[in-house]
Design goal:
Elements (H helix, E strand, L loop, with lengths): L4 H10 L6 H22 L30 H6 L4 E2 L2 E2 L8
Antiparallel strand pairs: 1-2
């Protein structure tokens, strides 16, 4: 499968990217190189490779969940840098 400059232009348009002709050509070459590599990987014989769910063993995912000491709400609020009454103050992150 080859990617043409026109297809790159359409993808760029959908992604709201402004690409000039040189950038479209470069992007088409890059995408085609990626697709060529994927095609090469598809030809690799993996019939003797056992299936696996994770690359690394889940060494910490299966640990026992052990309850530990917790802070009371009053102790927790003592560590809050800024508060109004019993409520912690946090920075505003939603613009009006």
């Amino acid at each position: 499968m080859r990617v043409a400059r026109e297809q790159v232009g359409r993808i760029a348009e959908l992604a709201c990217l402004a690409l000039d002709e040189t950038e479209r050509e470069t992007m088409a070459c890059t995408l085609n190189a990626i697709l060529d590599y994927v095609e090469l990987l598809e030809r690799v014989d993996t019939s003797d490779v056992p299936a696996m769910a994770h690359v690394l063993p889940p060494w910490d995912a299966m640990r026992e969940d052990e309850p530990g000491p917790t802070l009371s709400p009053e102790e927790w609020l003592d560590h809050v840098p800024s508060r109004t009454g019993p409520f912690p103050m946090v920075p505003r992150f939603v613009e009006e």
